[in-house]
Design brief:
The complex is a heterodimer of chains A (363) and B (308). Chain A has 363 residues and is mainly α. Helix content of chain A is 80%, strand content 0%. In chain B, helix 4 (109-119) packs across helix 5 (135-147). Classes of the chains: A mainly alpha (363), B alpha/beta (308).
Chain lengths: 363, 308
């Protein structure tokens, strides 16, 4: 790396960029990153093509206007990208530190003069940069959707900036667990487990309300059957992961058998409590007004994406292309700012946490 | 240069290192000897700031390993007993990465990398991938990485373990080069003949406790009750042996296989008086030598009766 740039980075951020350079050399070499990029672009294109089937079949867009088809195609692209980002980046981030520990290369790094901040930040920047490359690679597809009308440039900006913040959040989470756990497999499983848990819990609580009150223009992807089935399957996985995590935490205090029993009881108590809150006459259904629903959406990445895009979508539905603004632009901006801000802060907190955990561990 | 006082490390109920104390001066090649599980690696890891001691103090170049870990890291080169290598990385990139990690300025790195590659005889492998190197070459590369920031102190944990005889000899020659370069070396091993040729000082550790530490020759001399001399004459070997046994500075003299093995207890540096005596008595002395300290024998004697 250029000496001047190295010096400038060190002076400005106290960051030795050697770990980032090293990660770039290792991760961007060979066919793998290009394979991932190709697969990512193909899946994004494929999803949009499926959304455009009404046009290709020439059936008058199933009663929709062309701009509505374009909007649905863009929403499909954004949601597909969200799924891909949450699938790809944890695998890179969660292995970043734990894999070095596993391969016994971390020891030599620890006795050098690189700081925990250099290591975690260097690795995080590279994973995040790869996420950004993936997102940028889909911009031509987004332009394709925009050509059909119904998608404004600000919507593209809102959704892409949100996706970048989710990438930061997911990378930060993976990095934290990678710094904490001994094995890379464990870190990867735990990262996916927590993401699934966040998804499930955020669906279980406000999800049903979200489905009921979602704006017509929004991509109402969650049918009640899908939500129930998904919750059941994912709930079992989350419950099992929660049980393992609790048992591991309690094991030192109570011993393996007692810790297992205590973890099982705790999971059962949580389930009963959730059922109590979720029953039709319970606090969740009675206590939450429809107007509050968008703010609950923030905890579910998909719902948050719909929310970020929903305001603008709703306006387009109301006014049609070229129609007068529906007066909700300011609200949309606020929703975007709050939601992306929350993900940004959460990502930064996880990043800082990863640095701290890495500094404290001695292996 | 390295000073350890009462160093202790526990892992749960297991005391891995128990009240360990020794001192290594600048330019010493210090052999750290002990069986597997004796506490050698734990001690080296504490010196390398990778483990926090539970008791005692350790300083490297005057820097406390607990209070000034960064200063300690700057002046040590650490080579672990087992290390992994990065995939998809070339030899020069590997060294460049560690040079950057030690904050060596970018403009100095190319020359530095060439120098350490020359020293470790890996210049021809500069553009090869690290994971394609043989075990011996990887070991030499790791040593090159250890030297990339020109540290004063080298902590080498079993640097020749798992190598074939040729690779072992190459590593030993390389270490001898480093001794000549006035580096302070702490080298752990349980392969004693290797250390005997390299080290001027030795510490023997067993079950986390220090059994003995000091100059190899002195320890050997103390244990044997004096310096061990081997003398060969071309005539009257038995008579010569008898004459030597009568000398007050000779503790014992025995006939060996075509030679006389005797223990000298006289003033240090005055061994030549024995040779003069033999020559004056008309014996044709063919060889007169001091037997090199047999570290293996020394170790066996010292650890006799201690459980492993």
């Amino acid at each position: 790396m250029n000496t001047a740039l190295e010096g400038a980075l060190y002076r400005a951020f106290h960051l030795n960029p050697c770990v980032a350079v090293h990660e770039l050399r290792m991760r961007m070499r060979g066919w793998r990153p290009f394979g991932v990029l190709l697969a990512y672009s193909c899946i994004a294109c494929g999803a949009v093509l499926i959304a455009l089937i009404p046009i290709t079949l020439g059936q008058r867009y199933f009663g929709r206007e062309l701009f509505q088809v374009g909007r649905i195609a863009f929403a499909t692209l954004a949601h597909t990208q969200l799924t891909l980002i949450m699938l790809i980046l944890p695998a890179y981030a969660a292995g970043a530190i734990a894999l070095e520990r596993e391969k016994r290369t971390l020891e030599m790094l620890r006795v050098s003069l690189v700081t925990p901040f250099d290591v975690v930040t260097g690795k995080l920047i590279v994973v995040l940069a790869f996420g950004a490359v993936l997102l940028v690679s889909s911009l031509p597809v987004a332009a394709w959707c925009m050509m059909l009308g119904g998608v404004a440039p600000d919507e593209v900006f809102y959704s892409y900036s949100y996706l970048l913040m989710v990438a930061l959040f997911v990378t930060g989470l993976g990095m934290l667990l990678s710094a904490f756990m001994k094995r890379s497999t464990g870190a990867v499983v735990a990262t996916y487990g927590i993401l699934i848990a966040i998804g499930v819990l955020s669906l279980v609580v406000p999800g049903t309300l979200l489905i009921r009150t979602m704006p017509t223009g929004g991509p109402a992807a969650f049918g009640p059957v899908a939500a129930f089935g998904g919750t059941l399957v994912l709930g079992l996985i989350t419950g099992w992961l929660g049980f393992l995590l609790l048992r591991a935490l309690l094991q030192r205090l109570l011993g393996r058998n007692r810790a297992g029993l205590a973890a099982l009881l705790a999971i059962l108590v949580v389930l009963v409590w959730m059922w109590y809150l979720m029953r039709p006459s319970g606090a969740v259904f009675q206590g939450i007004e429809n107007s509050q629903v968008p703010w609950l959406m923030v905890f579910n990445p998909y719902a948050a994406l719909s929310s970020v895009m929903g305001g603008a979508f709703a306006q387009f539905v109301a006014r049609g292309p070229g129609g007068p603004p529906a007066g909700g632009a300011a609200l949309t901006l606020v929703i975007w700012a709050v939601i992306t801000g929350i993900y940004l802060l959460a990502g930064a907190a996880l990043w800082a946490g990863a640095v701290r955990v890495f500094a404290r561990r001695r292996d | 240069m390295i000073e350890i006082k009462g160093l202790t490390k526990k892992f749960g109920d297991l005391v891995a290192v128990n009240d360990l104390s020794f001192r290594i001066e600048r330019g010493d090649a210090f052999g750290f000897v002990g069986p597997n599980g004796a506490g050698k690696t734990t001690t080296i890891k504490m010196l390398a700031t990778l483990l926090i001691p539970d008791g005692g103090t350790a300083t490297v170049n005057g820097h406390d390993v607990m209070k000034e870990p960064e200063a300690v890291r700057a002046c040590i080169g650490y080579m672990p007993d087992f290390f992994g290598v990065y995939d998809d990385m070339k030899v020069w990139e590997y060294l460049d990465f560690f040079a950057a990690a030690y904050r060596v300025p970018a403009q100095k790195r190319p020359q530095l990398i060439s120098d350490v590659l020359d020293l470790t005889d890996l210049s021809h492998k500069r553009d090869d991938y690290v994971d394609a190197l043989s075990r011996g070459m990887k070991q030499r590369l790791c040593l090159a990485k250890t030297l990339v920031h020109d540290p004063d102190v080298l902590l080498l944990d079993e640097p020749a373990s798992g190598l074939d005889p040729r690779a072992r000899i190459e590593i030993r020659e390389l270490l001898q080069e480093l001794v000549k370069m006035d580096k302070t070396i702490l080298i752990s091993s349980h392969i004693l003949p290797e250390l005997a040729e390299l080290c001027n000082k030795v510490a023997i550790i067993e079950g986390g406790k220090l059994v003995l530490a000091g100059d190899v020759k002195e320890i050997s001399s103390q244990l044997a009750g004096g310096l061990r001399l081997i003398i060969r004459t071309s005539n009257r070997l038995e008579e010569a042996c008898k004459l030597l046994a009568e000398r007050p500075e000779i503790a014992s003299a025995e006939l060996g296989e075509g030679c006389i093995e005797c223990i000298y207890r006289g003033p240090e540096g005055q061994q030549h008086s024995i040779l003069t005596c033999l020559v004056q008595a008309g014996f044709q002395v063919q060889s007169f030598s001091e037997e090199a300290a047999d570290l293996e024998d020394l170790y066996m004697r010292l650890t006799e009766g201690l459980g492993t």
